[in-house]
Amino acid sequence: MSWNRRIRVKELRYSMSMYSFSPLTIHEGPPHMDAPGEIVLFIHIPKSAGTTVHRFFDQQYKPGEVFTLHWQGPEHLQYYHGQPDALKRQLRVITGHMQFGLHQHLDRPASYVTMLRDPVDRLVSYYYYALVDRDMYMHETASRMTLAEFMTSDATFELDNLQVRMLCGRIRAPIGSITADDLRQAMENLKHRFAVVGIQDDVSGFLKAVSARFGLPRLRMEPQNVTPKRPTLEDVSKAVKATIRSRNALDMELFDHVKTSIASKSVWQRPVRLAREWGQATLEFLPNVLPTFLKNKGPDGRAKVA
Question: Which residues fall within 8 angstroms of residue 56, CB to CB, at 6 or more apart?
Fold first, then answer.
């Protein structure tokens, strides 16, 4: 296949998929208002800019339309179903540290969105957040350990491939039991059930895509709940980073898959977007100039001489 033909094939494939709301790209397809009764389910992966996203939804919707539900087991589902029917009818967004699967327990259509983060960066931030937040359930445990000790402990399932756990729907599985099958299930869920997926490195791009998908105004958001006094990744020892990668190998693979997919599709996104914007500008420009242009033409099609 010639180079020019390969280019045309890639452009065709992109043009056919750019409006399909592919879950593995920050797209800029046409705005789609959410269907009547549709609920947005935001899976908030801890220390992945989720508080900023939650604040974004709070500013987009009316009071009472955004509900926080940290759904990880039957008791949390009972809490949701125990809410007044009037409250549940007005909901537009449910956010929280929830696992995939809540849509199966709702009586309305739902669309998922989520944002992932590099597992090493996320867990370093998690540890230092636990150190400073006295209300965090891991505060006392983390305070008794160094970063290296904490990352080699089994103190909480949140240190063990949490992103795969949440996105495959097995958040409370025993430590060490998450497998490649769970990784494949998480990828399948992202592919078929998520309207928008982003990465923490590009929060503004994620929010831009969410606005486009659900027909919301674009807002500029300041980062929320940022972990204070944490070292940069360059200051964390290579041994600790290697330990985190090893113990979270499935999370690493999932994150790399999403990040690579976003990057590869972004290569084609900008030129196609520019072409679309140029075409739209041309359509808006021609009706204004074409009548004047035709008026100045003579019977033979040539411009009239003054």
Answer: 207, 210, 219, 221
All domains of the chain, ordered by start, with CATH? 21-275 (3.40.50.300)
Per-residue confidence (pLDDT) for residue 62, from 0 to 100: 92
Burial 243-252 (b: 16+ CB within 10 A, else e): bbeebbbbbb
Quick check: 42 and 99 in contact, CB under 8 A? no
DSSP 66: E
CB 184 within 8 A of CB 21: no
Phi, psi (5° rounding) for residue 118? -50, 125
pLDDT at 288: 66
Of 187, 43, 21, which Cα lies nearest the Cα of 114? 43
Give which of 154, 179, 156, 157 is closest to 168, Cα–Cα.
179
**Per-residue pLDDT tens digits for 172-207:** 999 999 999 999 999 999 999 999 999 999 999 999
Q: How does DSSP assign 260-297, residue by residue? A: HHHHHHHHHHHHHHHHHHHHHHHHHHHHHHHHHHHHTB
